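New to this. Please check this protein:
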Amino acid sequence: MDQRDLELLDKQIRYHQPRNDGATILMLVGMFLVGMTLGGIWFGHQNERTRIASNDAIVATTVP
């Protein structure tokens, strides 16, 4: 690389902000927790009905 290339590279890099990895990781963890919470709320009731229905089927088959 010659001096001209280094000057052009410096101009390109000057406008880039440094990355903040801590904020990115915190945002990803927050999105994961929100997704798990919403998924549990939305699909939790459906699983409850399935579990009750399967318990009723087991009781009905074991009673003579």
Observations:
- The CA atoms of residues 5 and 11 lie 10 Å apart.
- The helical segments are 3-14, 21-62.
- Residues 21-62 form the longest helix (42 residues).
